[in-house]
Amino acid sequence: MRLLSVKDANKIIEAFLQPRWNFVTSPEEKDELHRLADELRKAAAPAPKLSFAVLSDIQYWDTKAAGKFSAALADLYRLNPELDDLVINGDLGDGRPEDYAKLGALVQNHPLADRIYYTIGNHEFYQAYYNSQGDWAPDSFPNGETDHASIARFLQFTGLSGLYYDRLIQGSFHVSGLRAI
């Protein structure tokens, strides 16, 4: 939805802001005139046909990462509550079941919960670096883990049937899922 036509925005800029530009002398005043002209141009811009955000490498496995990811989701929604979709590219956590459980619990209540698209990253295979006690143990890699098991956990979490997928968004936009490793 446009708040202002492009023609009217240009009229306001030409009739009011440009003449004032010739009389201001301070850089601050010129910056303010630029800012106002930019705001008018934004108000006259057509609404986007599709609006989505992309996050990457959230590595949602510790408290610090969880807090930052939660804040990022809140910021995205605050900045644009009309987002159509969210793409989260790879490195969701370390590929452990508890990582997926924590991430799932957080996103299930987000307004975009049913419109989040995931891609797999190399960290989804890191379960192989943990021993049976849950400790980081790269010396005993692969700790009985297989790539197939890592992929299966990712697919179970995302509900996808395969790593590559396509989605139709708003009936006309086609998005292809990529394997991001």
UniProtKB/TrEMBL annotation:
Mind telling me which InterPro entries this protein's record contains? Answer: Calcineurin-like_PHP (IPR004843), Metallo-depent_PP-like (IPR029052)
Source superkingdom: Bacteria
The protein in question is named Calcineurin-like phosphoesterase domain-containing protein
Specify the Calcineurin-like phosphoesterase domain's residue ranges.
51-144
Gene3D superfamilies noted in UniProt: 3.60.21.10
Molecular-function GO term, any one: hydrolase activity
- Give a single Pfam family match: Metallophos
